[in-house]
Design a protein that fits this description.
This protein has a domain at 2-90: D-Maltodextrin-Binding Protein, domain 2. The protein has five helices and three strands. The chain has helices at residues 2-17, 34-51, 62-70, 82-90, 122-131, and strands at 27-33, 54-60, 77-78. The longest helix has 18 residues, at 34-51. 13% of the residues are buried.
């Protein structure tokens, strides 16, 4: 499944970056959430070989993506949550109609090495969350 998502993400990103390839040796600045940076860097390396254009990434937490755009920082490509991108269009920070879906992100759960987690039912998932010593998550509004 990850392979299919990665392939779709790669194809979508190439399509989005293609219009930016005019002129030799341009630098394309990308702002994205940390979770995407590794896969995007692999794609960008191939893109750079083919076009000569260098792609640089600023990978931050999801909330910081929104904060940086709101602060007026300028990037050639911003990869962020749909809710944020819609707000940027409404507020006039982005040109209406230039936003394109790129990927869909699901929820991930991780446990320490050797830990066991039963998510097979609603009740077992509820119990796992209630019994957890700690839970972390990204807060889009908080910058974390």
């Amino acid at each position: 499944m990850f392979r299919n998502v990665r392939l779709s993400l790669s194809i979508s990103a190439l399509c989005l970056l293609a219009p930016l390839t005019s002129g030799a040796g341009a630098e394309i600045k990308v702002l994205d959430a940390n979770a995407l940076t590794i896969a995007m860097k692999e794609l960008a390396a191939d893109f750079t070989k083919e076009t000569g254009n260098q792609v640089t990434f600023v990978g931050v937490s999801p909330g910081q993506v929104e904060q940086r755009v709101m602060a007026g920082e300028v990037y050639d490509l911003v990869i962020t949550a749909t809710e944020s991108s819609e707000a940027f269009e409404r507020d006039g920070r982005w040109i209406a109609g230039t936003r394109h879906p790129l990927a869909r992100v699901g929820i991930g759960v991780a446990v320490r090495d050797g830990g066991k987690l039963d998510l097979s039912t609603v009740e077992s998932t509820r119990r796992a969350l209630l019994d957890a010593k700690s839970i972390t998550y990204s807060d889009l509004g908080g910058g974390d």
